[in-house]
Write a structure and sequence with these properties.
By secondary structure, this protein is of the alpha+beta class. It has one domain: Uncharacterised protein PF10387, DUF2442 (NE0471 N-terminal domain-like). It is built from four helices and six strands, in the order E-E-E-H-H-E-E-E-H-H. Strands 1-2-3 form a three-stranded antiparallel β-sheet. A three-stranded antiparallel β-sheet has the order 4-5-6. Strand 4 and strand 5 form a beta hairpin. The protein starts with 8 loop residues before the first strand and ends in a 10-residue tail after the last helix. The model has no long low-confidence stretch (mean pLDDT 90).
């Protein structure tokens, strides 16, 4: 019988459209990168600078992006709950532009 608790994170990959998380039990979870705006707007270097954290490494942290995602949230299909206003402030603090090309 499968464990009811999430497995530990062993690897994370991103491309232009997806976040893929590899778990110790062999599962792979792939979700749209746009679910997590800080990852979506982050640089390739920032997206690759992740670390497992939390109880039994059941979450992922991107310290430079101030982003934290739990395996449980990924398995439940929960995108970021950060407000659009918060993302806009964060982008502005980075001097970035929204995907529509306008500075926020």
């Amino acid at each position: 019988m499968a464990s009811k608790s999430p497995a530990s994170v062993v690897n994370v990959e991103t491309d232009e459209t997806h976040l893929t998380v590899f778990l110790k039990d062999g599962r792979r979870i792939s979700v749209p990168l746009e679910w997590y705006p800080r990852l979506y707007y982050g640089t390739v270097k920032e997206r690759t600078d992740w670390r497992p954290f939390g109880f039994k490494n059941r979450a992922i942290a991107w310290d430079s992006l101030d982003e934290h995602i739990s395996v449980e949230g990924l398995l439940d299909g929960r995108p970021s709950s950060e407000s659009p206003q918060s993302i806009q402030r964060w982008l502005l603090s980075r001097g970035q532009k929204h995907e529509n090309g306008l500075t926020v």
